[in-house]
Design goal:
Elements lengths: L12 H13 L1 H18 L2 H16 L16
Helix pairs in contact: 1-2
């Protein structure tokens, strides 16, 4: 995440309020922030993406092959 691109971050309540007020009055900035945040969410934080990353990390941690299929949750491998 990048402050000012995907979200608003400020050191003070006044700074955050100013940033939010700017977004309310600047349609281009608001649209750019929403678009960037939505893109980031789609690419990095969807449940399917998170599950794939956890699966990859588990395979690396256990020495399993990078492309190996894993059994479905709750099922034992034959």
């Amino acid at each position: 995440m990048v402050a000012g691109e995907h979200l608003a971050i400020a050191d003070t309540a006044e700074g955050l309020a100013r940033y939010c007020a700017d977004l309310l009055t600047d349609r281009a900035a608001r649209t750019a922030t929403v678009t960037a945040a939505a893109r980031l969410h789609t690419v990095r934080y969807q449940p399917g993406h998170a599950a794939a990353r956890v699966r990859q990390a588990a395979l690396r941690a256990t020495g399993g092959p990078a492309g190996a299929a894993t059994p479905a949750a709750g099922r034992r491998a034959p």
